[in-house]
C-alpha cells in the first residue's frame, strides 16, 4: 500500500485549494483565537494561535461569496450567545500571524480604536441579527428597494383593475417595491369575459424562475388547514394553538424547500388579514437592541431569535406612559411585534370577503378589519365595546382616500359607517328643555307646575301662561269631588 501511494504523484503532490478560516475576538476577555467549530450545545470551539499547528483543526470555509455567506449565516444562527464574539475571515495560511497581530492591536488599542474593528468584522447575510436595529420602530421604511416600478407587469395589474397611480394613492406601491406584501387588503376585479369576480387580496412581487417579476395574489381564506403538512412540517397541538391565538407559532423548525429539497430553519406565522401561513428564514431574523426604552440582554435576544414570546415590563410609549406587553417575531411582518392580548386576534380568522369585513362578523364578534383597514389595539377595544371609532386611510373603488366613523352594533353584528360623527349628530338632534316640556304636557299627559291647569295645548317652547285666560286657568283652585259625611 505504501508503494502504491508513493507511485501516485498526482495524488501526493496535488495542491490543496486555499480556503478561508475564522478568527474570533471575545468582546468580554479581549482574547483572539482561531475557530475550530461549534459543539452540539451551541458552544464555540476555539484554539489559541500557535506556529506549529495542523490546519485540519481549523474550520474551513469556501472563499466564494454566496457559499460563504450561506455558511456563516447558518454557523452564526447555531451559535449560543453569538453577541459575545466578533468574527473575522482570513486565509488559513495567514491565520496564525493575523491572530497574533490582531491580539497585539486589541491589547494596545483604545476604546475608540477598537470600534474601528467593526469595519472588518463579518456579519451574516450583510446584517447582524443581534445588532442591526437600535429601536423597535421596524417597518419597511428602512429596507432597500428590491424591485423597480418598470419591472412590474402593469398589463397584468390592469387586468385586476389596478395601475401605478392607484397603488401609490393606496400606499401600496412602496412595500411592493421593497419586497413586502401590501400592508392592507386591496380590492381587485378579475374580468374573465363571461364572468367578473371582485375580491380583496394582499399583493406581493416575486422573481420567477425565468427572471421576470410576477404578481402574487394572497386571497382571504376562512382559516389555514393545520392538518396538512406545511413545507414538510407537521403541526403539533401547541403549534395550532399558538397560530390561532397569537398568529405566531413560537419556535424555529426545519422546513423543506420543495424545489431544491434544502432544509431551511424557519419561523412560521399566520397572516392575520388573509389567514395564509407564512414562513421566514431564521437566519434573516432581525432583533433590536432596545424596545421602547428597554435594552435587551443576550438571553432576551436569543429568546426572540428562537421565535418565542418575550414579556417586557416598564416600556415607555410615545406619549411617555409606562406599559407592559409581550413581544414576538412575526414571520409575516418580518419584525418584532407587540402582542397585548393573544385572544384579540382570533376574530380575524372569520373574515372571507370585504362585505363581511365591513358589514357583519361571523359569530357576533366585532371584526378587526374594516374595508381593508386593520384597527389598532386602542381602536379595536372601543369598537368591540360598541363605541364610535374614527378611521382614516380607507380607499374607495376608484383609489380615492377617505375617512369616517364606524360603530359596531352588537344586536345585529353589523358595522355602521358614517362620514360624520354620529354622536355629534345625536347631540344636535336632542330636544331642548322647552320642547321636552311641550311634548310631556301635550303628548305624554304629564304636567308642569307653571302650566298644569291650562286646558288648551301649549305652544312651541311654552313653559308659562301665554295670556290672561291661561293665567286665570292656572290660578283657578282645583276642586275635589267627594261624598258628604
TrEMBL record:
InterPro entries named in the record: DUF3945, DUF4099
Domain spans labelled DUF4099: 147-227
Biased composition (Low complexity): 345-361
Biased composition (Basic residues): 476-485
Renumbered residue ranges of the record's region Disordered: 345-367, 416-485
Residues annotated as domain DUF3945: 288-341, 371-420
UniProt biased composition (Basic and acidic residues): 424-437, 446-459
The protein's name in its UniProt record: DUF3945 domain-containing protein
Amino acid at each position: 500500500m505504501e508503494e502504491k501511494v508513493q507511485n501516485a504523484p498526482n495524488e501526493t503532490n496535488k495542491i490543496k485549494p486555499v480556503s478561508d478560516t475564522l478568527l474570533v475576538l471575545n468582546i468580554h476577555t479581549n482574547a483572539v483565537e482561531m475557530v475550530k467549530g461549534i459543539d452540539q450545545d451551541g458552544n464555540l470551539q476555539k484554539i489559541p494561535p500557535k506556529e506549529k499547528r495542523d490546519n485540519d483543526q481549523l474550520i474551513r470555509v469556501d472563499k466564494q461569496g454566496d457559499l460563504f455567506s450561506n455558511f456563516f449565516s447558518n454557523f452564526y444562527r447555531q451559535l449560543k450567545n453569538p453577541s459575545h464574539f466578533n468574527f473575522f475571515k482570513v486565509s488559513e495560511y495567514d491565520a496564525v500571524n493575523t491572530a497574533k497581530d490582531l491580539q497585539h492591536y486589541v491589547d494596545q488599542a483604545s476604546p475608540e480604536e477598537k470600534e474601528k474593528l467593526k469595519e472588518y468584522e463579518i456579519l451574516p447575510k450583510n446584517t447582524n441579527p443581534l445588532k442591526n436595529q437600535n429601536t423597535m420602530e421596524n417597518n419597511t421604511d428602512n429596507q432597500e428597494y428590491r424591485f423597480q416600478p418598470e419591472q412590474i407587469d402593469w398589463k397584468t395589474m390592469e387586468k385586476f383593475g389596478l395601475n401605478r397611480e392607484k397603488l401609490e394613492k393606496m400606499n401600496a406601491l412602496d412595500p411592493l417595491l421593497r419586497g413586502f406584501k401590501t400592508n392592507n387588503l386591496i380590492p381587485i376585479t378579475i374580468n374573465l369575459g363571461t364572468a367578473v369576480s371582485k375580491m380583496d387580496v394582499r399583493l406581493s412581487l416575486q422573481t420567477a424562475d425565468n427572471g421576470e417579476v410576477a404578481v402574487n395574489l394572497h386571497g382571504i381564506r376562512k382559516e389555514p388547514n393545520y392538518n396538512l403538512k406545511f413545507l414538510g412540517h407537521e403541526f403539533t397541538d401547541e403549534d395550532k394553538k399558538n397560530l390561532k391565538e397569537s398568529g405566531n407559532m413560537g419556535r424555529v423548525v426545519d422546513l423543506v424547500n420543495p424545489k431544491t429539497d434544502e432544509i431551511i430553519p424557519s419561523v412560521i406565522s399566520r397572516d392575520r388579514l388573509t389567514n395564509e401561513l407564512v414562513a421566514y428564514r431564521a437566519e434573516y431574523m432581525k432583533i433590536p437592541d432596545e424596545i421602547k426604552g428597554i435594552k435587551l440582554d443576550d438571553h432576551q435576544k436569543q429568546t426572540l431569535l428562537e421565535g418565542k414570546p418575550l414579556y417586557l415590563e416598564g416600556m415607555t410609549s410615545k406619549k411617555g406612559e409606562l406599559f407592559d406587553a409581550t413581544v414576538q417575531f412575526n414571520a409575516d411582518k418580518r419584525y418584532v411585534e407587540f402582542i397585548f392580548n393573544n385572544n384579540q386576534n382570533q376574530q380575524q380568522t372569520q373574515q372571507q370577503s370585504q362585505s363581511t369585513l365591513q358589514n357583519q362578523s361571523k359569530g357576533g364578534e366585532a371584526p378587526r378589519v374594516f374595508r381593508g383597514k386593520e384597527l389598532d389595539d386602542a381602536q379595536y377595544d372601543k369598537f368591540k365595546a360598541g363605541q364610535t371609532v374614527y378611521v382614516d386611510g380607507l380607499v374607495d373603488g376608484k383609489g380615492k382616500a377617505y375617512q369616517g366613523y364606524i360603530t359596531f352594533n352588537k344586536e345585529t353584528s353589523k358595522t355602521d359607517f358614517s362620514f360624520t360623527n354620529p354622536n355629534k349628530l345625536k347631540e344636535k338632534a336632542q330636544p331642548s328643555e322647552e320642547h321636552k316640556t311641550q311634548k310631556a304636557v301635550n303628548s305624554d299627559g304629564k304636567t308642569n307646575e307653571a302650566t298644569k291647569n291650562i286646558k288648551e295645548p301649549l305652544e312651541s317652547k311654552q313653559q308659562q301662561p301665554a295670556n290672561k285666560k291661561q293665567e286665570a286657568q292656572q290660578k283657578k283652585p282645583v276642586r275635589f269631588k267627594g261624598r258628604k259625611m
